[in-house]
């Protein structure tokens, strides 16, 4: 098993980040073009806790390293199952995802958490991400190690692009919603 871990702080409030999270894979984000579809499977709010639970299927298009495709076959299209929890009381977004494609060959379990920054809770949001990547092909230690290392490297590349793209989404969201708020304010004054 290999572990990928990453964290950063966004200079946006938790409210901005938790709202923009739903637009993470939109046309404003030119860094995650490998994500071709996001389908919401279910969404519900727990009446007692106020927690929003959402299940999504994320479809990606990216090629695996040629040596993996040569050994195991496969397609450039892959699917990821994601469950997210938005807790407005504790101001915490938790997202857990797992690969559906090639799940007999590799297990990728990712966890992402967004919470207000301890140093500036009204204006900054902490992001923590980790992924546990385990090759499941029994007995072939060299192949398992190679698959895990290639997967961690690809995961890291995609995570970097994802953060950069999400920054663009956050910036655009702030601009668009700021313009809308200003329009509403002007209308109320008129």
Structural features, described:
The relative contact order is 0.21. The chain has helices spanning 14-20, 66-72, 141-189, and strands at 2-10, 35-45, 52-61, 77-87, 92-99, 106-116, 125-135. Strand 2 (35-45) and strand 3 form a beta hairpin. By secondary structure, the chain is α+β, with helices and mostly antiparallel strands. The protein is elongated, with a radius of gyration of 19 Å.
What topology emerges from the helices and strands here?
Blueprint (H helix, E strand, L loop, with lengths): L1 E9 L3 H7 L14 E11 L6 E10 L4 H7 L4 E11 L4 E8 L6 E11 L8 E11 L5 H49 L1
Antiparallel strand pairs: 1-7, 2-3, 3-4, 4-5, 5-6, 6-7
Query: How much helical structure, as a percent, in the residues?
Result: 25-40%
End-to-end separation? 62 Å
Lateral arrangement of strands in the main beta sheet: 1-7-6-5-4-3-2
What Rg do the Cα atoms give?
19 Å
């Amino acid at each position: 098993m290999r572990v990928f871990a990453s964290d950063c702080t966004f200079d946006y409030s938790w409210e901005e980040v938790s709202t923009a999270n739903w637009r993470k894979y939109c046309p404003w984000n030119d860094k995650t073009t490998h994500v071709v579809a996001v389908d919401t499977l279910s969404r519900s709010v727990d009446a007692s806790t106020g927690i929003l639970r959402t299940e999504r299927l994320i479809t990606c298009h990216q090629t695996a390293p040629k040596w993996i495709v040569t050994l195991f076959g496969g397609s450039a299209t892959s699917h990821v199952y994601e469950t997210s929890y938005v807790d407005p009381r504790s101001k915490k977004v938790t997202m857990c995802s797992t690969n559906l494609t090639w799940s007999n060959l590799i297990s990728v379990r990712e966890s992402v958490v967004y919470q207000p920054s301890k140093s500036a809770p009204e204006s900054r949001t902490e992001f923590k991400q980790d992924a546990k990547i385990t090759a499941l092909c029994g007995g072939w230690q060299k192949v398992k190690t190679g698959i895990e290392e290639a997967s961690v490297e690809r995961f890291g590349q995609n995570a970097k692009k994802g953060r950069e793209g999400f920054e663009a989404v956050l910036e655009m969201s702030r601009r668009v919603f700021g313009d809308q708020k200003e329009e509403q304010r002007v209308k109320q004054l008129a």
